[in-house]
Amino acid sequence: MRRTPAGRFTASGVRYLERHKGEVNCCAFSPDFHFLLTCSDDGRVHLWSAQSGRLLAKAKGHTGPVKCCAFSPDRALFASASHDRSVRLWRTVTAGCLRVLAGHRRCVETVCFSPDGRWLLSGGWDQEAILWDVQTAEIVKVFSAHKGAIQCSAFSLDSQYVATGSWDSTVKVWGVHRTEEQERTLQGHHGNVSCVCFSGSGPLASGSWDRTVRVWLPWDGTPLFTLGHRGWVRCLAFSQDGAVLASVAEGDVVTFCCHIHVSVTCPIQGHRDSTFGCSFTPSGALLAAGAADSTWGVEASRQEEEHSLQSKRPDRSTID
């Protein structure tokens, strides 16, 4: 993407890589921007060089569609969630499976690491969110107040809270360290909640099959504003500074909310088919988006930011 002097975004420098054999459901950058993960209905997780777009490894082991993937904060590990009812932890350096986390009774839709690296949260069709200890792979806590499948999850930046979105049309915010199961329920959507994302500045965004993105103050449940799409919302991503929110929807273009408290939106178009997942680089200079055409695209931002990333590129021949 490129931001114009008029404050709008356009797609530029888009690269398409077509190595998956099914719909690309999720993509995630490593915190240092060296790597990119993509996962697909083909049961594979692919590890790419974020700079060159070269496929580095294929993580194999899942026996069903892989719906979500995420890097640990130190990028030493990545996690994947699958319809085979498992969550897998992988070593980034080898793309080899470290542990299989078996605790869900039905398909797993979402997985995310806490920013401090201590916890992993997964959720799925059994209507439960499981908090795992990353070091021991043990279950720490089970959150079970939803009345529908859990499709999405996200930690707050201080790792103290986690949000889950469900097919019961609600978003719940949980305290990670509370001894009792207590949650705040955010109500307002009129369809399945498909994605949630915390901003570094505090607000929480949620996207739904009701074709809206809602932005909240999560601690008291106050709604800030609502954005509309032409199709049901599939994915949300905040830039690291919390100033820009990207959203993608079924049959629609990628939309940016440029000022989170003002709600100025700018659409861009790049994929040939519906976009399923999106993720900002840590600098906010690039956005990756995966689509139903089995590709993922990287849209470039301002030339000076791209030049800065180019100068920091690692050796592409190895994964260190």
CATH class: Mainly Beta
Summarize the biggest pleated sheet.
4 strands, antiparallel
- Count of DSSP helices? 1
CATH topology: Methylamine Dehydrogenase, Chain H
Order of strands, main sheet, comes to 3-30-29-28
3D shape? globular
Helix content percent band: under 10%
Oligomer: single chain
* Strands, total number: 30
- Alpha carbon gyration radius: 18 Å
C-alpha end-to-end distance: 29 Å
| Average of per-residue pLDDT values | 80
Key features of this structure:
Methylamine Dehydrogenase, Chain H, 3% helix, 30 strands, mainly beta, 4-stranded antiparallel beta sheet, 320 residues
Question: What's a concise summary of this model?
Answer:
The chain has 320 residues and is an all-beta fold. The chain has 1 helix and 30 strands.
Q: Strands, helices and their partners?
A:
Elements: E1 2-3, E2 9-10, E3 15-17, E4 24-29, E5 35-40, E6 45-49, E7 55-59, E8 66-71, E9 77-82, E10 86-91, E11 96-102, E12 108-113, E13 119-124, E14 129-133, E15 139-143, E16 150-155, E17 161-166, E18 170-175, E19 183-187, E20 193-198, E21 204-208, E22 212-217, E23 222-228, E24 233-238, E25 245-249, E26 254-257, E27 265-268, E28 275-280, E29 287-291, E30 296-299, H1 303-311
Antiparallel strand pairs: 1-2, 3-30, 4-5, 5-6, 6-7, 8-9, 9-10, 10-11, 12-13, 13-14, 14-15, 16-17, 17-18, 18-19, 20-21, 21-22, 22-23, 24-25, 25-26, 26-27, 28-29, 29-30
Molecular structure report:
With 320 residues, the protein is an all-beta fold. The chain has a single domain (2-311), classed as Methylamine Dehydrogenase, Chain H. The chain is 3% helix and 49% strand. It contains one helix and 30 strands. The chain has one helix spanning 303-311, and strands at residues 2-3, 9-10, 15-17, 24-29, 35-40, 45-49, 55-59, 66-71, 77-82, 86-91, 96-102, 108-113, 119-124, 129-133, 139-143, 150-155, 161-166, 170-175, 183-187, 193-198, 204-208, 212-217, 222-228, 233-238, 245-249, 254-257, 265-268, 275-280, 287-291, 296-299. The strands form eight sheets. A four-stranded antiparallel β-sheet has the order 3-30-29-28, with no helix packed on it. Strand 25 (245-249) and strand 26 (254-257) form a beta hairpin. It is globular and about 45 Å long. Residues 1-5, 262-273 and 291-320 have low confidence and may be disordered.
